[in-house]
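Q: Structure tokens for this one, please.
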Amino acid sequence: MASKTSTMIKLAREIRETADGGTPQELRDIVSEMIPQGRFKYPSSYDFNADLNGREYRFIYDGYIDDALRMEFDTDPYNLGCFNAWFLAKYLPLTKEQILKAQKAECFEVIGQLVLACGRLNELLEDAVSYDDYGHFFSHYDGVKIDLETTDYMMFRTN
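A: Here is the predicted structure, written as tokens:
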């Protein structure tokens, strides 16, 4: 079994290579968020942003990512209403044409609130992730999800 220190070093190297750089302090700060400290057996943060090599990244723990995605859309019905009409029609009591008409009238928030009211958010997001993966939702820079081999976190570039 690898020591905690060697795991931290391996993780820092993996992140540095993935991001094409990073200062020792940036890497230390990121790794300390991911690796449990002291007597704790859980990481400090399940979802956090960090600057690395002049860019911003978001790190999300694998076991928390579905909750993070659900919270993003649960608190932002406008963006939920921006999904493609053909996709939304599977989860709403409206036709694709009715949804398109509402979208053309810029009623995105109303559409999103309807999805929430119908109780279909979890199902919709599960299907959306199966189509586009998590990178589409969390990596605003390039839509890429980076699976880190040394830890159970995913890394997303956000700028």
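A few notes: The chain has a mean pLDDT of 92. The beta strands are 47-52, 55-61, 146-147, 153-157.
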